[in-house]
From TrEMBL:
<keyword id="KW-1015">Disulfide bond</keyword>
<keyword id="KW-0812">Transmembrane</keyword>
<dbReference type="InterPro" id="IPR013106">
    <property type="entry name" value="Ig_V-set"/>
</dbReference>
<dbReference type="InterPro" id="IPR036179">
    <property type="entry name" value="Ig-like_dom_sf"/>
</dbReference>
<dbReference type="InterPro" id="IPR047164">
    <property type="entry name" value="OX2G-like"/>
</dbReference>
<keyword id="KW-0472">Membrane</keyword>
<feature type="signal peptide">
    <location>
        <begin position="1"/>
        <end position="20"/>
    </location>
</feature>
<protein>
    <recommendedName>
        <fullName>Ig-like domain-containing protein</fullName>
    </recommendedName>
</protein>
<keyword id="KW-0393">Immunoglobulin domain</keyword>
<keyword id="KW-1133">Transmembrane helix</keyword>
<feature type="transmembrane region" description="Helical">
    <location>
        <begin position="219"/>
        <end position="244"/>
    </location>
</feature>
<dbReference type="GO" id="GO:0016020">
    <property type="term" value="C:membrane"/>
</dbReference>
<dbReference type="GO" id="GO:0150079">
    <property type="term" value="P:negative regulation of neuroinflammatory response"/>
</dbReference>
<dbReference type="GO" id="GO:0098632">
    <property type="term" value="F:cell-cell adhesion mediator activity"/>
</dbReference>
<keyword id="KW-0732">Signal</keyword>
<dbReference type="GO" id="GO:0034113">
    <property type="term" value="P:heterotypic cell-cell adhesion"/>
</dbReference>
<dbReference type="GO" id="GO:0030424">
    <property type="term" value="C:axon"/>
</dbReference>
Amino acid sequence: MARHAVIFLCAFGLFQKGLSALVETQHTVMAAVGEESCLQCQLMQSKNVLQVTWQKILPIGEDNIATYTRKFGQTVNAGFKGRVEFKTAGLQNCSINIMNVTDRDEGCYRCLFNTLPEELHGPFLHVLDSVVSCSATGRPAPTVTLTLPHNNSTSVTNSNGTFTVTVTARLHNNSREVGCAARVLSAPHKEASMAIPEVKMSAIKGFKEDSRPDNSGVALVRIIVSVVLCSVCVAVAIIAFLCLRKHLKSVSEKDSEMTKSPQKSTKDSLEARTPLMTKVNELRLRWSSVKKKNLPRHQI
């Protein structure tokens, strides 16, 4: 019965600068000489990985075995071609097979997940009137949080590949201190805080009391319209009063004329009738004289 020697392969993974806790792998793999051995490596958090590299640890350094990138795909270095191939090629999960294992393959292997270096600048906290803003710049885009509710967030991509994230919120009348935190991926977060001055607190309180939107323009228009309407009403009232007064005066004058007019007509009629009466009297006198002449003398 043939016996196969068993060799031990240790494997561990690294993410950037020694963050091995983010990488999961089999620490010890046993393989028989002449058979095939699989080394697996998986990134536990989703990261912006550019390249995965497998290395063999040597007493005087390390030897690159194979690399995988999205742009260039799978690459096996010359010293391992024909003996090493990718079983799973990915930027989050990458494994290789060592075929026809020999004693020389015994040792420790390492997988590296290479990304763009993380950087974080800030956070920077600013308070202007009743508005608080907190901004941070980093790569990849940082996560920025404020200790105030109902905030808005904006992100801007800079020319150097970094991102600037700004979060704004409005102060409340009970806000004595405001805090801000920023972090990039798994890196430790940075914090900033600021005490709200008493002057600003008074301004905020006044803002809360007058929290209604500024309608000064509308109010001015309303005042002008009210003044114009009042002026028009007063003018209409004055004109109506003058017209009524004129009308009453005219009626009064007509009544006065009508009162004087009958007296004049009576006088005129009397004057007109006076000559007639005179003539009648004259006729009576004449008639009497004629009658007297015609009567016999003895009757006279």
